[in-house]
Amino acid sequence: MTKFTRRTVLASMGAALATPALLSLAHAAEVTLRLHHFLPGVAPMHTRFFEPWAAELAEASNGAIKVQIFPSMQLGGKPPQLADQTRQGICDIAWTLPVYTPDRFPVAETMSNPFMVTNAEASSVALHTLMDEFGEGEYRGMKPLAFHTHDGGKLHTRDAPVTSEADLEGLKLRAPNQATGQMLTALGAEVVFFPVTDMVVGLSNGVIDGCCLPYEVVPAFKLQELTSYSAEPAPGARGLYANTFALVMNQRKFDGLSDDVKGVIEAASGMELSRRIGRQFDEFEAFGRSMVEKQGNEIAEIPAAEIARWQEAAKPVHDAWIEKLSAAGHDGAAIMARANELLDAG
């Protein structure tokens, strides 16, 4: 393999390879990494992050790293199994949600509670910082590469907009996670849980009246065609919720790599990768919203005073989460306080 230094790696990754050096020789891949995720191959996360990131790793390593991407759970299993698939070596890298295995990664799941998001970039930096400070060892057998969130969720419904607690009464909603589901239940909604990949069927056959999701999900599942109304918090308010995500690698696979290849992966991961993914999710959010507008769907605003009432309804959910963290051996109050501090500072 052609020798490359950490200095050249950092230089090439620093600007996302905006001006990559042309390679004069083709190099056979020294290591092939299988990356597994649950979204379809047309999703922005696949086309605008995973594919470019794989190309950057290949470029920065002079062809020593090849990433094979398997969308739509093509390696088998269900989305909640992605973390275990990584730990067991079924795949080498996976993009997964802590909420798909509730309570297993409680620190990483903390910011999936209601109203724990501003925008995706700032919230992703806050999450990564929180994991650095409190989450060491939570992903045993896996090497975390990045932690991030999406932008705040909105309420997408088929028959009428939701701008008040009264509008939620009896509404059948797919909740994005247990904590948000508890808040929506307290506000009068009838909540169901299933992976986002099953949402299309639920909306099509009338099992649910709507869902709570960010706009970035809209294009991948044609949500603008399945619903007619979207409702978002008034400007300046925190988002209704944001799920947290982890990009993780099999630790044994990483440990077995050469130092040079490890250096490329290290330079392409960490806080700046979390920030980058968050920034891209803010871009995905804007694009998804434009699809809703293009469809002619109504976008309503949830007044700030109403959001304040919903935040009060979420306080018992937060208190229960603090107890859950403490029962797991953490300082739950400190983690929740630090998360809020980071979000307010962002």
UniProtKB/TrEMBL annotation:
InterPro entries: DctP_fam (IPR018389), TAT_signal (IPR006311), TRAP_DctP_sf (IPR038404). It holds the Pfam family DctP. Residues 1-28 form the signal peptide. One of its GO terms (biological process) is transmembrane transport. It comes from the Bacteria. Transmembrane segments: none annotated. This is C4-dicarboxylate ABC transporter substrate-binding protein.
